[in-house]
Write a structure and sequence with these properties.
By secondary structure, the protein is an all-beta fold. It has one domain: Beta Barrel (OB fold (Dihydrolipoamide Acetyltransferase, E2P)). 0% of the residues lie in helices and 54% in strands. The strands form 2 sheets. The protein has a 4-stranded antiparallel β-sheet with strand order 1-8-6-3, with no helix packed on it. It comes from Piscinibacter gummiphilus. Keywords: Biotin. This is Acetyl-CoA carboxylase biotin carboxyl carrier protein subunit.
């Protein structure tokens, strides 16, 4: 069974764009989604290669710092 990795928001803000879909394979460093905070766009990168298991925020959602946004299996 693959290890699960929770990818958390580095800052609070609004999800501006979701770049991946559930089931999609990603490489380490790929952008998973972009959070907008204080008029800055902050990309959330995959910490490792794997497959997207869950996306826990949608475009337009407000998120808090350290909130789990994406779950990867890898």
């Amino acid at each position: 069974m693959a290890d699960l990795h929770e990818v958390r928001a580095e800052v609070g803000g609004r999800v501006w764009k979701v770049e991946v879909a559930v089931g999609q394979a990603v490489a380490e460093g790929d952008t998973l989604l972009v959070v907008e905070s204080m008029k800055m766009e902050i990309p959330l990168a995959a910490p490792c290669a794997g497959t997207v298991q869950a996306i826990q925020a949608a475009e337009g959602d407000m998120v808090e710092e350290d909130q789990v946004l994406v779950v990867l299996a890898g």
